[in-house]
Structure prediction request, 450 residues.
Amino acid sequence: MSATIGIIDTGRSGNTFSIKRSISLAGGKWVEVKDVQALERVDKIILPGVGAFKDAMHELTAHGLVGPLQEHMNRKPTLGICLGMQIMARIGFEHGKSEGLNIFDAEVQPLRCEGKVPHMGFNKINIVKENKILKGVENEPFYFMHSYELVNYTDIASLTSYKSHQFVSAIAKGDIFGVQFHPEKSRDAGVQIFKNFIDY
Amino acid sequence: MTLRIIAKLDVKPPFVVKPVHFEGLRKVGEPAELAYKYYQQGADEIIYIDIVSSLYQRKLLTPYIEETAEKVLVPLGVGGGVRSLDDFSNLFHSGADKVLVNTEVVQNSPDLINQAAKTFGAQSVVLNIEAKRLPTGTWECYTDCGRIRTSKDVLEWVQEAAQRGAGEIVLQSVDRDGRRLGFDLELIQKVVSLVDIPVVAASGAGSLDDILAVARIANLGGIAIASLLHYDEVTIHDIREFLRNRGVEV
Prediction:
């Protein structure tokens, strides 16, 4: 029996449409997770990412999911996407300071560079530390749409350059993975990432 | 980072129509079918605008949006008659990644931009501009697909909206839309240099050379194309190749 991926879907903004479709295309099985009971039943976790840091944390708190997520992420492979990666950090500064899930030690700061912000569009990733999630997508472009970046020094899996500014575009720490880009919006290369996560 | 080539679908449910100068309409196909076709051609993004919902004060018809979202694995921007945070939320749940606003924020509630940016993040709040060039050499904001004028100055409004938290601007021109006479380069250049957020140029592509001319504007975020694609004269693949051969990174 194949593993079931739980997609955390509590927010008003959660566009999980393409994530579901990508998992299905990659041959995986998913369920929506809105509460602790549903969380208990899944084998892997995807934390999707549309919205703002503070609002997303409010939603998770309101659904009683902060503590349980921290506990389950300890033992279940997890993929955070965009904001989903960001809120796994210790602290965020979008619309005021707020605490994240503190899965890894990082801060989420405004993207400061010469280019237009949000950083929006397809861009390449430069893998600095190989991992199973980024396998087979080395030279592929991925879709980014973000105004904030993760400031982390220890668990970097890939970096991306935007107007001569380098930022963290993927992290990996044990069974925890995060990508700043949207694999579900990045054509076949994105589907490959979901496939890698299913096979993990 | 590359310049985005975006396919724009002007939808009068259940069909994509080709507005000529924002008025006469010609059916060109169904949104899901055309979105898929342009996705296959290599579109970096799809913009879906319901061109009647704002005018008729009608809710956006989400089944067509869902059907469209199901066909593509690139971002989908949706607009037309968006009036509240609930509208934003409904569209995200129907598969939209970005939501375009115009009429409501220009006419009634500019604060909706602030609220939406705070709730959903700036990256998913797109200001849709319908600019009309005035004899005075300035541009006026129009709404409801170029039917209704406001007294807002485009260059002032884009700065205000960016300040309020909009994450992107789709810049359409009432004078140029569907006419295939080339983009309003002066307007696009001005807006790109005035705001720090990405700007997508729309309205006016009549040839590959028109597209090259706008692609040469420094720091432009993307180019949205409608009619030219609907005529089946060029594909997105052709556009990309043409631009690449001339040194534009797309």
Notes: The domain at 4-199 of chain A is CATH 3.40.50.880 (Rossmann fold). The longest helix of chain A spans residues 187-199.
